[in-house]
Amino acid sequence: MNSKTLFYILKRILLAVFTVWVVITITFFVMHAVPGGPFVGEKATTPAVQAAMEAKYGLDKPLHEQYFTYLGDIVTKFDFGPSLKQRGRMVIDIISDGMKTSMALGLIAAGVSTLFGVTLGAVAALRRNKLIDRIIMVITTAFVSMPSFIMGSLLLALFAIQLRLLPANGSTPAGLVLPIITLALYPMAYITRLTRSSMLDVLGQDYIRTAKAKGVSGARIIFGHALKNSLIPVLTYIGPMLAYIVTGSLVVEQIFAVPGIGRAFVSSITNRDYPMIMGTTIILSALIVIMNLVTDILYKVVDPRITLE
Amino acid sequence: MKFKRVIAASLAGVMALGLAACGGNNGSSSAPAKDGASEAAKTDGPKEISVCIASEPDTIDPALNSAVDGATLLAHLFSGLAKWEQKDGKLEIVADAAKELVEGKENADGTVTYTYTLRDGLKWSDGKDVTAKDFEFSWQRAASTALAADYGYMFEVIDGYDKVWETNDKGEYVNPDAKLNVKAVDDKTLEVTLKNSVAYWNELLAFPAYFPVREDVVASEKWATDPKTYICNGPYTLDKWEHNSLITLKKNPNYPDADKVTMETINFYLSDDANNMLSNFKNGDWLLIDDVPTNEIATLKTQYPDEFFNVGQIGTYYVCWNINENILPADSTLTGAEAEKAKAEIRNAVSLLLDRNYIVNDIAQGGQLPASSFVAMGLTDADGSQFYQNTGVSDKFDGYFDPSSEALQSNFDSAIETLKKYYKYDEASKKFTNFPSMTYLYNTSEGHKAIGEYIQSALAGVGITMNLENQEWATFLNTRKKGDFTIARNGWLADYNDPISFLDMWTTASGNNDVQFGKGDHAALKNYSLDLTDLGYETKVENGTWAETFDVLISDIKSCTDKDKRYKLMHRAEDMLMATGCLTPLYYYTDLYMLNKNVKGFFSNPLGYKYFMYCTIEG
Questions:
Q1: Which of B335, B319, B328, B320 shows the shortest CA–CA distance to B527?
Q2: How many other CB atoms sit within 10 Å of the CB of residue A290?
Q3: Does residue A37 lie within any of the structural domains?
Q4: Of residues B179 and A250, which shows the higher confidence score?
Q5: I need a surface site. Which of A156, A266, A304, B158 has the fewest CB within 10 A?
Q6: DSSP string spanning B417-482?
């Protein structure tokens, strides 16, 4: 790695920190501008109780003071504070609980979808316009166009209620099978189509023809030249997909009652659980920024023609 | 051709998948065993039950909890002086940690002192003795300003509470050392003095806020989030808590009545998605679910007649009007008290235009009952009869008007006649032409929306334009509390079986006074009269403000020690409220749940708490 690349990475990291700071600032002020508060419920507490709670969590202080205190705690102590809703629990604990599940779910789904997607895509490209290609294309079109809440509900109704093969809630390892499938089908279908078209493109290139003319074996052409080069567009897709998929899918987590970060994020907003909203926003935005950075660096590894600057 | 066949085959496949999925299964064969342990339990007569009542509880610290799902968990984990029990199909409050529920002794100053003796052999789950000191500590803690618990006010009946919460002009507490009048005389004896006799005192003793906790245990706020530090004294202990996923309770061998507890393990799965709950109920994994998707209610009722339940709950779904909003025609010359009298008459007339039977049978569909009073069905009167049946308005119906289908036309006609006094009516189109348009505010939900749309169409039928506006929950609460609305959806569930829980919320200073009684322009409006001389009070006000009448009435009720008189006063208070027309009751709430028919010994109380300790599973 040369100094130019290092400088580029450093620049990107600084930019990432800046991005996260902007996200923190915007979220903080917008969140406080939204009407309603964490201690408001159907049954009102007395103003004295309300005031006591606000004082306890420092919400009685001026907004800018709260902002700087918060930033200070994050930077110096990595302290996200306590949840205002789940009494006695720290935001970081709630997030790490949720992230563990969402990460496991997301990483498996991403792995499954990449593995099957690339394989199916390659098969389809090599058997272009044959029956197998058409079957793959029909199925992937269906999966790409079917929203996850329909796919999830269908799988749930079939495997959990009708056949009773798998549990309907995602709190056990067996219960994660259906959410993983639901989560994996769309990216798998997308990767299949992407791999197929990219592979077809590569297979038509001159250097493949040259290799063929030189008598290189079919397997070597495919694995040594075609597949590797056709993965660049796929990689472009996998990076952001990974970020998206591991940060929790609200829809899938809701349908299968998976205790992931997506559900926690949405409920924190409904509850006006300020520290929880901030915590999840920071972690999720940081993850996405990091994933994008990693993807950019990986381009360079896969395709030396790309320069990072 | 080949391609088409492939598409056809694929389509057929997808359709088959869909049809199979839609088929549904009415059978209730037992759940597939997930692991060896539960398999063993099943062959030995199942001693484990899996249920879902709600998502992750906000807290399971008895003093901090203010939710029904939290209360259900706490009722299994703690043993207060009293508890709810079902005997021969009837619910009652019986002694639990106390030897008996004693009568109070009235003191010379009108306060009432209760002396309880604790049962022998009471233990915490870590083996230490439960003492009267623990109760004293817990109650002082739960009512303290330091804890500032939502349900701290549940202790307001105890002497000393007012001192604890007394503040000066700056909002500072004046008596930092003040305490409730509760004392542990010795390890076994607890003495508590109430401000006056309280009809629902025993019920309060069974309320989670009154459950005991131990001082050394609760020193860290985290104690109630981890099974390792969660020390309790009830029928169960907290065995496992996978946050946002599962709470497992195991039978507590230290509980004195452990031999009566039949269920060894209770799994409370944590989910708030009604569709997911239903899936788990249908496949037999969860034997009770406390919520069902609204649009499935009608189907479920017929598909699962033995397993679909709706039981009475002490609550009312209603529409509230902002008393300060003008609804008179633009050219009206009425002002002050006269205008308010007219508005009250108009609001009550609009209420009569609504078909509550249609709302409960065709929209809500949950077995709710049409409401004709604000104090809900299920709250009892002095003689044990239903409070709402004794409003004294008519012998022909209960409540303040006749909500039956038969009376629909006559209600409608009388409403039109009343409204004609104030608005222009076009006889040809049978519509009012100068009723100002109004906005109905509700929180985002399909159910509330459907009811809003019905009211909109019912009013449109007589020429009244009502727009609908929905807001997200926390925003909605804020808007409604501030009074930024004309009409808003509202609902109230009581915390205890006493009508005062529906009445004291409408005092000027109450945080739940969404109608804005006694606030804004209404503060100075001298429109109300109150004469309590026939009940032996000196209170007699002619044309007074809300604060001079209703607020006084509520404080009289709170200090009244004569049961009969107290209930008469409460009827007066409801009369006053209903006369304003600001509360338009629609239906009395019911609690919907699904319970597998193999489960026996289950019960729930009117507050919605569910009890699984005495359950057995057959088949």
A1: B335
A2: 15
A3: yes
A4: B179
A5: A304
A6: HHHHTTS-EETTTTEES-PPPEEEEEES-HHHHHHHHHHHHHHHTTT--EEEEEE-HHHHHHHHHH
B475 and A35: CB-CB below 8 Å? yes
Number of domains forming the structure of chain A: 1
- A1 occurs within a structural domain: no
Contact B514, B481 (CB under 8 A): yes
Q: Are A56 and B148 in contact (CB under 8 A)?
A: yes
Report CA B506 to chain centroid distance, whole Å.
16
Is this model's pTM higher than 0.80 or not?
yes
Residue B185, token pair as written in the block: 């005389």
| Phi, psi for residue B437 in degrees, rounded to 5 | -75, 150
Q: For B256-351, where are the E strands, in sequence order? A: 265-270, 288-289, 308-321
**Measured between alpha carbons, how far is A56 from B607 in angstroms, rounded to an integer?**
30
Here the tokens at position B297 are 């209610």
Interface of B with A in 185-244 (CB under 8 A): 220-225, 242-244
Distance (Å, whole) CA A287 – CA B85: 52
* CATH code (residue A93): 1.10.3720.10
List the beta bridge partners of residue B246.
B242, B269
Residue B61 at interface with chain A, using a CB cutoff of 8 Å: yes
Tell me if A2 is assigned to some domain: no
**Nearest CB to B222 within list A50, A88, A142:** A88
pLDDT 10s digits, A105-157: 999 999 999 999 999 999 999 999 999 999 999 999 999 998 888 999 999 99
- Is B279's CB within 8 Å of A156's CB? yes
What torsion do the CA atoms of A260, A263, A266, A269 make, to the nearest 10 degrees?
-80
ipTM over 0.90: no
Strand-strand pairing, B583-595 and B528-531: unpaired
